[in-house]
Amino acid sequence: VARSKDCQSCARGSIQHTKMAPGKKSKKNVENINSRLQLVMKSGKVELGYKSTLKTLRQGKSKLVLISNNTPPLRKSEIEYYAMLANNNKSGSKTQVHHYAGTNSDLGTACGKYFRVGVASVVDPGDSDILNSLAA
Fold this sequence. Notes:
This protein is an alpha+beta fold and 136 residues long. It has helices at residues 8-12, 24-43, 50-59, 73-89, 104-110, 130-135, and strands at 45-48, 64-67, 96-99, 119-124. Strands 1-4-2-3 form a four-stranded mixed sheet, sandwiched between helices. It is globular and about 35 Å long. Residues 12-24 have low confidence and may be disordered.
């Protein structure tokens, strides 16, 4: 437990600060996903946006759905529900849902676009192993 001299709460003893390990693992994980997503954008097929993602889920084509962290909760739950229905109807591969650690601006940038992307659906991963890396 490290106490700061200038923190009033520490001086009174009402709270205690604890040193946390730096968040390198999560940052490295995001970079890993971003690099795999760039490869999918080049070699595979990705549908960007809410409506297109729902279409791919209804058709059973979606392998992976990426949802940004600032997507509205109702929209998130609807996409998760569609993915669950797709998993029940298909006997083949499961549709994975991954909650992307960044905002919709970050997801758009990771996809190589100059606009915001709240939801992305990977239909064909191409040369990337993004499905295997997110499953683990």
